[in-house]
Amino acid sequence: MATEAQPPALILVVDDEDAVNRLVSRYLTHLGYRVLEACSGAEALAMVRRPGPRVDLVLSDVVMPGMDGIALAARLLARCPGPSVILMTGQLPEEVERMNVNGQIVPVLRKPLNLDELQNLLRVTLEGFSDAEADPVHLAG
Q1: According to the model, what pLDDT value does residue 35 have?
Q2: What is the domain range of residue 116?
Q3: CA 20 to 30 Å from 110, out of 2, 96, 100, 130?
Q4: What angle do CA 87, 139, 23 make, to 5 degrees?
Q5: Domain containing 110 — which CATH number?
Q6: For 91-110, what is each residue's pLDDT tens digit?
Q7: Inside any domain, residue 14
Q8: Do 58 and 83 touch, CB atoms closer than 8 A?
Q9: Phi-psi region of 85 (alpha: psi -120 to 50; beta: other; left: phi over 0)
């Protein structure tokens, strides 16, 4: 009996800078992921809530006008089941590699993004490794 192949993960990229959205989306598409883009936290939340394919992961900037990435992450992580979340920023201290958002650990990537680090973090996050299997990290929040 043949099993049906799973479609590639659907990733929603959220950044108020169009150039960042385009660059990251192009890279993720090159890696084989399906990609959506949003330019604000409110738009991203609406996209996750709409009917259609389930968003597997949200990759969001932290600093955005209106709903910032941390508030977006909190709302997304309250959903059950909800997408995984990775935050990206150049605004937090470099030693912050993960944040505690509503009791859940959210990885934080530095801007400008290291594409190899992004690819590895996506693999680990989407394959569902537990926090215990990850390297020790510094927490904020």
Answers
A1: 98
A2: 10-132
A3: 130
A4: 20
A5: 3.40.50.2300
A6: 877 778 899 998 899 999 99
A7: yes
A8: yes
A9: beta
